[in-house]
Design a protein that fits this description.
alpha+beta
Length: 121
């Protein structure tokens, strides 16, 4: 269908913009391509809504409840036929202590297909 997203960059832009806005009332804060791995992208949220009203015990300080959102991102990628694994990582800084980085690792086949499609332009 004409509205279906089946390319990497349009999919990432959709997740970063319209999807995030629909779920959280604003766009995500950043989207980046890994400098070390061709199949890795990162979407950052400086203040994830899902973490705002949750108190995490000190002994569980590595717990990031935004992992739920990572599952949503993974489902959207898979639903578009761009299979990926997504994980949520604490990326807090002094300015943004609750920052979460969503690491999106697309399957190698997805990246190879994207390269072939880029070559046809």
């Amino acid at each position: 269908s004409p509205g279906q997203v089946n390319r990497l960059l349009p999919l990432l832009q959709f997740i970063h913009g319209p999807l995030w806005r629909s779920l959280f009332g604003r766009t995500a804060d950043a989207i980046e391509h890994s400098s070390t791995a061709a199949n890795e992208y990162m979407i950052s949220d400086n203040e994830p809504l899902v973490n705002q009203y949750i108190s995490v015990p000190k002994e569980m300080n590595q717990l990031n409840c935004a992992a739920y959102v990572a599952g949503i991102i993974e489902g959207v990628c898979d639903g578009c036929g761009l299979t990926a694994g997504v994980s949520a990582h604490n990326g807090g800084t002094e300015m943004w202590p609750g920052k979460t980085v969503f690491l999106i690792r697309f399957d190698e086949g997805v990246v190879e297909r994207e390269g072939l499609l880029e070559g046809k332009k």
